[in-house]
Write a structure and sequence with these properties.
Radius of gyration: 26 Å
Oligomer: single chain
Number of helices: 18
Distance between the termini: 89 Å
CATH topology of the largest domain: D-amino Acid Aminotransferase, Chain A, domain 1
Strand order of the largest sheet: 15-14-11-12-13-16-17
CATH superfamily of the largest domain: ATP-grasp fold, B domain
CATH class of the largest domain: Alpha Beta
CATH architecture of the largest domain: 2-Layer Sandwich
Number of domains: 4
Largest sheet: 7 strands, mixed
Number of strands: 21
Structural class: alpha/beta
Length: 580
């Protein structure tokens, strides 16, 4: 008979599917599970197995506020265990390990071991020391280092951020893996990546994506499970949308065992490999030191890692279990629909991705009728999250279609609105112009500095601000670099928060997105009549309706943003009558 634990557990990152899987699993032990997320309507929060739901400040925007929330909630509710599911919560929560009242409650691996797992360069270094196969790698911390090795590289190469989450003191960003086919592409992408931390340049390895999922007791693996990725989004490599459980390959398990033993790992982890079935060779790609995206597959196959983690951290040992079942398929419905869409749109370069046959596409789709198939979210025993997920999928596609129609309508409306701005700028020189975006460290900051460059002796007061609550933040390092190349100095920039007084004193206000326009309507309705989208005016009809936020994205997105902002600013300057 299953023992029923009389205690409360807090699971963070409730907006993720693994958090839902953790909640469902622990509830079967009789544990009372609370879910928390920075998203108000998180998918895990809909589960009937969740007792209470909490909302915390987004740790990517303010670690301080998030940690303060954690300290208060954990001590108030007296949880027996607190489980961060993603790096965005686990990384900042390491700061709480110094609190003797909270540290024993946190399901976080030893700090020294986690530091290695979170840093891909350190993972490669450890694997190399242990004699384990890894892609040929170069850890780059400066442009000078790149210059020294670039001639020795064989393209294509993979550019990975050393840490998946990077950024400055006041805000962090989820970073992505990039590919370079030429030296010039590599230089641009590495220069961009270095603004968020060091990068790892790796040899491109083809093969199948395989994961060894495990739980270890101070370096001793107590249970292991293996899966094979069948579908990934994006197509060139990313989170899996369809996978299958397979028998454990002893060479992969041995490699995982060597890493885990060296790290003295305590808790759950997944070691990712690229496996070549033709010559039976493999390369270690990285270690995920927390619950992984394919966790629901493991649980469906009989590898209940959340229950095992609870046993390890609460009872002090993992109970013996039968091996997991092979041949079980797990599918993330929403992401797999995206996968099929990417396939139909041919969204990946053929140099990196071999498109499946029509037979393979149909076969994978028909697996949903197999008794060995499971969905990550949809579960008849807990139906509401699955129904919400389907509703979101349908509403997402309806919204996309509606947005296409609305885009055309709004485009015409904004061009008509611009007629008023055109006449205002043409007939009367404004006393003050205000530029707004979300954070005031990229788009509006560039707009202010660029118009000052074009009008150095102007009598027009130029101001800019953002809706982000934290002020006095420096400009984005990537924007500083790109703007500097065109003579716009943003080295000493300090962000500002928009105020009602600033808007009332401005004769004309330019925002970057519809969401900004809506904020003005909601928060400062008196300024709506003089607020316009910067990217759409009748002299600039070739530009997009909105100027998107480039923060944390690829360098080419920043460059596109700069082109859109500067082109719009030039039109504004050309419209204004000369200084009297």
């Amino acid at each position: 008979m299953t023992r029923r634990y009389k205690c409360d557990v807090l699971v963070l990152d409730g907006d993720t599917v693994p958090a839902l899987s953790v909640a469902r699993s622990l509830s079967r032990l009789g544990v009372s599970v609370d879910i928390a997320s920075h998203v108000p309507q998180s998918i895990a929060g809909y589960s009937r197995f969740v007792a209470r739901k909490h909302i915390y400040p987004n740790p990517l925007e303010s670690e301080t506020s998030f940690l303060s929330w954690c300290d208060d909630v954990i001590k108030t509710h007296k949880y027996r265990l607190v489980i961060p599911v993603t790096e965005r919560t686990m990384v900042p929560m390491q700061a709480l390990l110094g609190d003797p009242d909270i540290a024993p409650l946190l399901a976080i691996p030893p700090v020294e071991a986690l530091c290695v797992a979170l840093d891909k360069a350190k993972t490669v270094r450890l694997a190399t020391q242990l004699g384990l196969p890894v892609p040929k790698s170069h850890h780059i911390e400066s442009r000078e280092q790149l210059s020294e090795i670039i001639d020795s590289l064989d393209f294509p190469v993979v550019i990975k951020p050393s840490r998946s989450i990077g950024g400055g003191k006041n805000a962090r960003s989820q970073l992505m893996v990039e590919y370079a086919f030429t030296a010039s592409e590599l230089v641009a992408q590495v220069k961009h990546g270095l603004n968020f931390g060091s990068v790892l340049i790796q040899q491109y390895i083809s093969g199948q994506g395989v994961g060894i999922e495990l739980i270890a007791d101070h370096g001793d693996i107590k249970f292991a499970f293996q899966h094979l990725r069948l579908h990934e989004v994006p197509l060139t490599g990313g989170g899996s949308s369809l996978r299958v459980s397979i028998p454990i390959d002893e060479p992969l398990l041995d490699a995982s065992r060597a890493l885990i033993k060296a790290l003295k790992w305590h808790g759950v982890a997944m070691v990712e490999f690229k496996w070549n079935p033709h010559d039976q060779t493999f390369s270690i790609m990285e270690i995920n030191g927390r619950f992984w995206g394919s966790l629901p597959l493991a649980v469906a196959a009989g590898a209940d890692f959340p229950a095992m983690l609870f046993e390890l951290l609460v009872d002090g040992h993992v109970k013996p279990r039968a091996p997991a079942r092979a041949g079980v398929y797990g599918r993330v419905l929403s992401r797999d629909i995206q996968w099929y869409e990417h396939i139909l749109r041919r969204d990946a370069p053929k140099r990196l991705f071999q498109y499946p046959s029509k037979y393979s596409l149909v076969t994978d789709l028909l697996r949903i009728f197999s008794f060995k198939h499971s969905f990550d979210v949809q579960d008849i025993r807990d139906p509401l999250p699955g129904l919400v997920d389907i509703r979101r999928i349908i509403s997402g596609y309806i919204s996309r279609f509606g947005n296409l129609v609305a885009e055309r309508r709004n485009q015409r409306a904004r061009i008509r609105d611009w007629g008023r701005a055109y006449r205002q700028l043409k007939n009367e020189r404004p006393r003050q112009i205000c530029f707004l975006c979300y954070g005031n460290i990229n788009r509006s900051a560039l707009a202010e500095q660029y118009i000052r460059l074009l009008m150095p002796d102007t009598d027009v007061k130029i101001v800019s601000a953002g809706f982000h609550q934290e002020q006095n933040r420096p400009a984005d390092p990537v924007m500083i670099e790109i703007a500097g190349e065109m003579g716009v100095d943003m080295q000493y920039w300090s962000s500002k928060l928009v105020t009602e007084n600033m808007l009332s004193e401005s004769d004309i206000i330019f925002v970057m997105e519809h969401s900004h326009f809506k904020k003005i309507q909601d928060q400062f309705p008196g300024a709506t009549h003089k607020t316009f989208l910067l990217g759409k005016n009748e002299k600039n009809s070739t530009l997009g309706l909105e100027i998107s936020d480039p923060y944390g994205k690829a360098r080419e997105i920043y460059e596109q943003c700069v082109r859109e902002v500067t082109s719009s600013i030039r039109e504004i300057v050309n419209l204004m009558p000369p200084k009297k």
